[in-house]
Every structure is written in C-alpha cells, then in structure tokens.
Amino acid sequence: MAGKFEVYEDASGKFRFRLKAGNGEVVATGQAYTTREGAVKGTQAVQRAADGASVVDADS
C-alpha cells in the first residue's frame, strides 16, 4: 500500500500534515499553517522537493 499525506487541525486550531507510510507509521510531519489550503500546498512542496532528492550525511 502506498503512503499518504493526512491534513488535520491541531489542538491550537492550526493545520498540519503528516506523511504516513503504507503500514500507517508516521514518517514525517509538517509545520503549522493557518489554513487547510496552506497545509495542502505544504504537502505539494514536499512532493516536489523529494522527487529525485539525494541522501547526504549532515556531519560531512
């Protein structure tokens, strides 16, 4: 099963997203947005940025 983004309203009334793997485990979370639309755009930005992204060692 493919992963999915979930957009939700947090306890403070802000909108966030989380990326869940196919097994349901949360593998990434997004910052707080003032609108649901902003959170959806955040998921789209992550999808664009991740396409072809490389893995680097941050300690190097």
Write the layout of secondary structure elements.
Elements: E1 4-9, E2 15-20, E3 26-29, H1 36-50
Domain DUF1508: 10-57
Organism: Galactobacter valiniphilus
Protein name: DUF1508 domain-containing protein
Which short descriptors sum up this protein?
60 residues, alpha+beta, Double Stranded RNA Binding Domain, 3-stranded antiparallel sheet
Care to describe what's here?
- This protein has one domain (4-50): Double Stranded RNA Binding Domain, CATH 3.30.160.160.
- The protein has one helix at 36-50, and strands at residues 4-9, 15-20, 26-29.
- Strands 1-2-3 form a 3-stranded antiparallel beta sheet, with helices on one face.
- The chain is globular and about 40 Å long.
- With 60 residues, it is an alpha+beta fold.
- The mean pLDDT is 95.
- The protein contains 1 helix and 3 strands, in the order βββα.
DSSP helical segment count: 1
Class computed from helices, strands and strand pairing: alpha+beta
CATH superfamily: YegP-like
Tell how many strands the DSSP assignment holds. Answer: 3
Total separate domains: 1
- What's the end-to-end separation, in Å? 35 Å
Helix content: 25-40%
Protein name: DUF1508 domain-containing protein
Domain DUF1508: 10-57
InterPro entries: DUF1508 (IPR010879), UPF0339_domain (IPR051141), YegP-like_sf (IPR036913)
Short description:
Helix content is 25%, strand content 27%.
